[in-house]
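Re: weekly structure request thread

Next one in the queue (183 aa):
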Amino acid sequence: MAPMRIVATWARGGIEPLDPMRALHRGGLMFRLVSGGLLLAMVAAACGDDTGRIAFTSDRDGNVEIYVMDVDGSNVIRLTNNPTPDLFPVWLPDGSRIAFSSDRDGNDGIYVMGADGSNVIRLTNNPAFDRDPAWSSDGSRIAFTSDRDGNSEIYVMDADGSNVIRLTNNPAFDTFATWSPTP
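Done, posted below.
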C-alpha cells in the first residue's frame, strides 16, 4: 500500500484541508514544507517523478507563480514569471513536463512547460476559461474543465491540444477530472 499523502491549503490566516478528490488527483505531499503561510488558498501540489520534486503555486514573490521544491522543502525554484496567475500545476507521469492553468494571454487556458519551466506552450485558445488539467497515466491526453459551452464541463484533448472532446453535458457544475491509474 502506498504511503498516505496529505494536501492542505495555506491561507495567511491558517490551514484548511483541500478537497479529498482533488488531493488524490494531485497526489500531493504538502504540510509545513513552505513556512510563513505564503501559499494562496487554492494550492495545487503535485508530486513529480522519482526525484520526489513537488510542484506548487505560491505568491511568495508578490505574484502567483509555479514553483518546484524537494520533498523536504529545500531547493525551491520558481518556474514561471508572469504578471497574471499561473495555477494548478500537474506533472506528466514521467516527470518531464508540467501542465498548468494561466490567464497570461487574456483568458484562462491550459499550458504545458518543461519540468524546468522552459518551452511554455499554450494548448487551449478560446474565449472561455479552460483550467484544472489532469494528465492521463500514459501522458497522451489531458482532461480539463471548461465553460466554452456556457457551463463548466469536463473535456479531454490530446497532449498537443488537438482533438478536444466534451465528455459531460448537463446543467450541473462538472470539474476537477482525474484519470484512474493503469494496472
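The chain has a mean pLDDT of 77. The longest strand covers residues 86-91.
Next request, please.
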